[in-house]
Amino acid sequence: MIRHADPHRSIRGFTLVEMIVAMAVFSLTAGGIYGLLATQAHSSRLTNNFLQVQQNARYAMERFEEEAQWASGVSTASGGATPSVTFNIPTNNPVNPGTAYTVQYALTGSNTITRTVNGGTASE
Predict the structure, then answer these.
(1) CA-to-CA distance for 121 and 114, rounded, in angstroms?
(2) CA 32 to CA 35: how far, in whole Å?
(3) Close Cβ partners of 115 (under 8 Å, ≥ 6 residues apart)
(4) pLDDT tens digit string along 46-76?
């Protein structure tokens, strides 16, 4: 006697339970990867901001140092509400040869150092 195989039994596939388990594993993996990428992006933004602040501070300190070296006169004011230091830069300075100017560095109430040239706030 010859047995014939059930034609529906030879078709292989995934059961509904297997599909749900596979989707759950994929979702958890994708969620974990997304979380890592989001954390890395946030960390990258913080690092870039920190580096930019550090670069700006370095530039400001270099500028302050250069102007202190060029100064022909220095005066300080610490008795008032705004402590400051003022440099009188002579005409033979390397930045603006032939132009004398006065630069003042002042510490504001918000702990910000401002730089003013000839009484007006500089954009640098």
Answers:
(1) 8
(2) 5
(3) 60, 63, 103, 104, 105, 121, 122, 124
(4) 999 999 999 998 998 998 898 888 899 888 8
* DSSP code, position 65: H
3-state secondary structure of 95: coil
124 token code pair: 């640098």
Strand, helix or coil for residue 116: strand
Q: Name the residue type at position 86.
A: T
Q: For the whole model, what pTM was predicted?
A: 0.61
Phi, psi of 81 (to 5 degrees): -75, -25
69, 87 Cβ separation under 8 angstroms = no
